[in-house]
Design brief:
The chain is elongated, with a radius of gyration of 55 Å. The protein has 13 helices and 18 strands. It is an alpha+beta fold.
Length: 478
């Protein structure tokens, strides 16, 4: 049976740690050796070998840890390089990663991020895989380290891979956030510089911090002069009450929209502006105010002109006796002036959004529709006479003149012509009576115009009395 401990054969008694063989359990080979070499001794080296093996293992582990630390250091240097893209960063880490693992010669790696996959040149899928997973801005990143042969991963290697994943996540998140901020700032600056409206930034006290180019176009002042001024200096005197109300609301933390104020342009003129302002908060206190001022001077002038025009139009509508009507393409009334009641007995609200078919005499409807079609296609004025219903049930003769407007609505002036129609009817009846009397009279009857030319001769009496045809006298002088 072999000895329980490790032994070493040594000559003489010169080695340190020589012990008496009688006190030891030795293997047969050692006893046989002693029988032939009596002056030689056996030394116990068990602890020395154990210590050596521990030292070798410790050195091996230390080398592995050094590789891991070197990998993390190189990753950190890559991350610190602000000039490298995220894609370049991932490729760089893949070049570093395999060398940090114990069996680097059969190691490959892969990083999956944003539907993209980055791999080492020797990448292959196998069952011997170590992975770590991180979520960056709601996007998943997976780092896989793979052995191409059946080799075990160490716990320290997993810790290293996880640490790299955490650092990479922090770096990518920061870079993506910076990219978004940079993009947002670029977009803001583009809008800021290109906007035709005045955009300005002030501090809490109203000191001007920044303005866009439109400011200098509208307010004739240099950038140097601007830096010395407070925003209050720009507002015209008659707006002071509004201005302080505006400032009070802003300082209370409220956003203000559509505040109309007058501003000096420092060239002797005053312009009107519509201002939107938003307070910018930091640590629950207002530090800055961002404002957009839109020049509404021309709009205000147009509004004033429109107001005056509407007043004139309203005066005209109320003064004339004719009715003003507006009809859409479906034949529905969209406007009626107050004269509607005086002519037809209806109030405007009683006919608005109702079809004109309900009010126009059925026998006249076809002629009205044909006139409207003509106006639609020719875009020219039309005049038409028709009968329309009075509220008490009878029909009133009306004459309408109008055209199609740019808004695709028919607008016209309607006049009551009932009296004219009655007079025309009486005239026709009178003429008919005169014709009957003259044609049946035995006396000669003739009508002369101002030039003493015959316009009418009763034909029967003329032929019976003189025997001539009236054609030779009509149009000739008396």
């Amino acid at each position: 049976m072999y000895m329980k401990s490790c032994w070493e054969y040594k000559k003489c008694g010169k080695e340190i740690g020589v012990i008496d063989v009688k006190t030891l359990e030795v293997c047969p080979a050692a006893i046989d050796c002693l029988s032939h070499h009596k002056r030689e001794h056996i030394i116990d080296i068990t602890k020395r070998r154990e210590t050596k093996e521990k030292l070798l293992k410790s050195e091996s582990k230390l080398q592995e840890r050094i590789k891991e630390l070197s990998c993390i250091y190189q990753v950190s240097k890559l991350i610190e390089n602000k000039g490298i893209s995220i894609e370049g960063l991932l490729h760089g880490i893949l070049e570093i990663l395999p060398a940090a693992f114990r069996f680097s010669d059969i190691c490959c790696a892969r990083i999956s991020y944003t539907d993209n996959e980055y791999t080492t040149i020797n990448f292959e899928i196998s069952e011997w895989m170590l992975s770590t997973r991180e979520v960056i801005n709601e996007k998943e990143m997976i780092i896989d380290v793979i052995y191409l042969e059946n080799k075990p991963f160490q716990e320290e290697e997993y810790d290293m891979l996880r640490e790299i994943g955490i650092r990479l996540k922090s770096c990518i998140k920061e870079r993506e956030t910076q990219a978004k901020v940079s993009k947002s700032e670029k977009k803001y600056r583009t809008i800021f510089n290109a906007s035709p409206d005045m955009i300005y930034l002030t501090d809490y006290k109203g000191n001007v911090l920044d303005v866009n180019p439109a400011w200098f176009k509208k307010i004739k002042i240099t950038p140097e002069e601007m830096q010395k001024m407070n925003i209050i200096d720009f507002f015209a005197g008659d707006s002071q009450e509004k201005l302080w109300k505006f400032i009070k609301e802003i300082r209370s933390g409220k956003a203000v929209k559509g505040m109309e104020l007058k501003i000096n342009n420092f060239s002797g003129g005053i312009s009107e502006f519509e201002i939107d302002s938003v307070p910018i908060m930091e640590d629950q206190r207002i530090t800055q105010v961002l404002s957009i001022a839109r020049d509404v001077t021309e709009r205000k002038e147009m509004e004033n002109k429109l107001k005056k025009s509407e007043e004139k139009y309203r005066y005209l509508v109320n003064s004339v006796s004719d009715l003003l009507l507006e009809v859409d393409l479906k034949g529905k009334f969209t406007y009626a002036s107050p004269q509607l009641y005086d002519i037809f007995g209806f109030t405007p609200s009683e006919i608005i959004n109702k079809s004109m078919r309900k009010f126009i005499h059925p026998d006249d409807m076809y002629e009205v529709l044909e006139a409207l079609k003509e106006a639609y296609h020719t875009r020219e004025d039309i005049t038409i006479e028709y009968r329309t219903l009075h509220k008490d049930g009878h029909y009133v003769y009306a004459s309408a003149k109008g055209s199609l407007l740019d808004n695709n609505r028919f607008f016209g002036v309607v006049r009551d012509i009932s009296e004219r129609k009655i007079a025309e009817q009486k005239l026709r009846e009178s003429e008919e009576k005169f014709r009957l009397i003259s044609e049946n009279a035995y006396d000669l009857i003739g009508l002369l115009n101002k030039k003493f030319k015959y316009e009418y001769i009763n034909e029967n009496a003329f032929q019976q009395t003189l025997g001539y045809s009236v054609k030779i006298f009509l149009g000739n002088q008396f």
